[in-house]
Amino acid sequence: xxxxxxxxxxxxxxxxxxxxxxxxxxxxxxxxxxxxxxxxxxxxxxxxxxxxxxxxxxxxxxxxxxxxxxxxxxxxxxxxxxxxxxxxxxxxxxxxxxxxxxxxxxxxxxxxxxxxxxxxxxxxxxxxxxxxxxxxxxxxxxxxxxxxxxxxxxxxxxxxxxxxxxxxxxxxxxxxxxxxxxxxxxxxxxxxxxxxxxxxxxxxxxxxxxxxxxxxxxxxxxxxxxxxxxxxxxxxxxxxxxxxxxxxxxxxxxxxxxxxxxxxxxxxxxxxxxxxxxxxxxxxxxxxxxxxxxxxxxxxxxxxxxxx
Length: 308
Ligand code: CP
Ligand code: NVA
What we know:
Number of strands: 9
Largest sheet: 5 strands, parallel
CATH architecture of the largest domain: 3-Layer(aba) Sandwich
Bound molecules: phosphoric acid mono(formamide)ester, norvaline
Distance between the termini: 14 Å
Shape: globular
Order of helices and strands: HEHEHHEHEHEHEHEHEHHEHH
Low-confidence stretches: none
């Protein structure tokens, strides 16, 4: 494995292997038995937009396992403005052993990977959020067990970067996915075609609807995310008028399977896409999901560094 740019770049077996490793590393962490598998390695972290979970979980993943991480802010690097992406990639390749990049444009993280001699991890682009998708899958497996084939995953809200990775990991693992989005806010067409190709092999069913109530029928998982992603701030008011029918609230949750879990990648805009009552209620797994970023990322790093 060289880079981790998209879940769909990997086979179902490779993704399952990484998730198994995440489960093993999580057990080690809770037994205070982290092994120094990243000793001598430093992860450079290039952030073009804000982060809590991604930044802290990557930093801690490296430190727990004997390595280190270096945060590089947008103003310091000036990716593609102060210096070309290709030059930044080639310079950093001589200083650090791995690179995590959160960019606006997906093509920028792809370009970093093309020019780097070291592994590059996509920490969220405008197209996808593969590290989030791995933590999400880990959380779903922890809840429903490994025999989770045929689970119904329902995503309600904006068809965005988080939706793409959730859709791809779910299709690889044989889960059915229903996505409910308002017209004009659909999931990226190319990402849907990729998911359909994966689903043909795994047997999972993919559905795209407008009605959130139809989407959550028989759902084992209801997932939502912000209505306005980073970089779309000027659309906030317009989106605020369109998305309220897609709010995940107690009424919507009551229409799903009685043991449904509610997920959100966070940060949440409470009482917009997700009510407080649901976020802090018995179906919510949002903090377990956030904490799983740490364990899933350790597994990704271990596979890229070829250590475990
Ligand atoms: N879910 C997620 O990626 O959170 P941050 O933006 O805080 O990293
Ligand atoms: N869709 C959100 C995810 C944040 C983790 C965004 O891109 O802002």
